[in-house]
Design goal:
Helix 2 (15-22) packs across helix 3 (29-41). This protein has two domains: 1-59, Arc Repressor Mutant, subunit A (Orthogonal Bundle), CATH 1.10.10; 62-114, Dna Ligase, domain 1 (2-Layer Sandwich). Helix content is 39%, strand content 22%. 13% of the residues are buried. The strands form two sheets. Strands 4-3-5 form a three-stranded mixed sheet, with no helix packed on it. Strands 1-2 form a two-stranded antiparallel ribbon. The protein has 114 residues and is α+β, with helices and mostly antiparallel strands. The radius of gyration is 16 Å and the shape is globular. It starts with a helix and ends with a helix. It is built from five helices and five strands; from the N terminus they run H-H-H-E-E-E-E-H-E-H.
Length: 114
């Protein structure tokens, strides 16, 4: 139910917004939160921070990062070898064995910059 609702939403949504979208048949808000956390841990959904609040969206199944507009919340998925190389190199330089990383970039999109 929660996965299906997320797959039908193009933008990132909060747990409360998702709960409201589920309507009268929605599980408790606590169940929505637990399910979202489980889906995130398993890599089925992505989470970004929007104004201090975690928001969720079904995303591409491949590893990627996000560009997030701090004005309108437009979010673009990006992938590239440069971020992967930087994460690996930085970890190695500091004696870490890289396991995973998250690189979300927050700024202002073209439409909001004008």
């Amino acid at each position: 139910m929660i996965e299906a609702a997320l797959s039908g939403v193009a933008e990132f949504v909060s747990a409360q917004q998702l709960h409201a979208l589920l309507g009268a048949d929605a599980p408790s808000l606590a169940t929505v939160y637990r399910t979202l956390q489980s889906l995130e841990r398993s890599g089925q959904i992505d989470t970004v921070n929007r104004n201090g609040e975690a928001v969720y969206r079904a995303c591409a199944p491949t590893h990627h990062h996000h560009l997030v507009c701090t004005v309108c919340s437009t979010t673009i998925e990006v992938a590239g070898d440069e971020v992967e190389r930087w994460a690996s190199q930085t970890a190695t330089e500091h004696g870490f064995a890289l396991q995973t990383h998250v690189a979300d970039i927050y700024g202002t999109c073209v439409a909001c910059s004008t």
